[in-house]
Amino acid sequence: MAAEEARLIAVGSQNEAFMIRSLIALLGLIGVIAGAHAQAPLSDEVKAMAEGTWEFSNADRDKRCLLTFRTDPAAKGMRLEFDKGCAALFPFIKEIVGWSLTQNDFLRLLDAKGQSVLEFSEVESRIYEAPRPGEGILFIQASNAVGPPPKEADAMFGDWALMRGGGKPICTMTLANTPAGDDYFALKLKPGCDALVTRFAPTAWQMDRGELVLKNARNVTWRFAEGEGPAWQRVPEGPQPMTLVRQ
Q: pLDDT by residue (tens digit) across 174-190?
């Protein structure tokens, strides 16, 4: 009986020793892996992403905020910081906990499970885009490389003069702030407009993707793009260039 008990004790001790050795080996392996991960050198591309701030926006840039990429570890990938107010513009941002840059230059914004909330591809140097259902195309681009945001309607209210070529004004009009339906505002021509303008007879205006659009009752439109200085130039230009200048 005593011999059997001694045998069982010896077996138990061997099992316990084996488990301890296995646990030590496992902890050592985890330490090696963690150390290798922590010591992994950052690529030049990742370092470049961590320089400065980035603009996160929709295609029209009427919704935009700032984003900063960090290189220290996050729950998944590396840490990133969205500016205050980003989540109000893009509610899905709350799902994002980290980021990674793959070898094929895909910029991935990750959720807590390591899955891509968004996967951006680089379309130009330091300009990334990604589709998002319900949002269209989203962009991430270096904030020091983007121009000023496109003008919005509230920056356009007031009197404007239309000029043909480099000559004198051929018409003065008021871009009113009175809604005219379908995201348009009312437009009123002042007396003395040239026949070219009265035949077109614009009655409404709106801002569309940074361009000023004038529309008549027949749904014919003239489009103007912001140029250098105060002038807005008709696009496409056509044989008779026309510009709009604020009065």
A: 999 999 988 999 999 99
Which CATH number, 2.40.33.20, 2.40.128.10, 3.30.460.10, 2.70.20.10, labels domain 44-142? 2.40.128.10
pLDDT, tens only, 214-245? 999 999 999 999 987 789 999 988 777 899 99
Parts of the chain belonging to CATH 2.40.128.10: 44-142, 153-246
Please list the ranges in the chain whose pLDDT falls under 70.
1-40
CB neighbour burial string for 9-39, b if at least 16 within 10 angstroms, e if fewer? eeeeeeeeeeeeeeeeeeeeeeeeeeeeeee
Rounded to whole angstroms, how far apart are CA atoms 14 and 19? 9
Cα torsion angle, 10, 11, 16, 17, sign: positive
> What are the two backbone dihedrals, phi and then psi, of residue 7, each rounded to the nearest 5 degrees?
-65, -45
Instruction: Look up the pTM and report it.
Output: 0.57
Of all residues in the chain, the percent with pLDDT exceeding 90 is 64
Contact 96, 80 (CB under 8 A): yes
Q: Is 153-246 a CATH 3.40.50.10350 domain?
A: no
Q: Tell me the two tokens of residue 15.
A: 């099992």
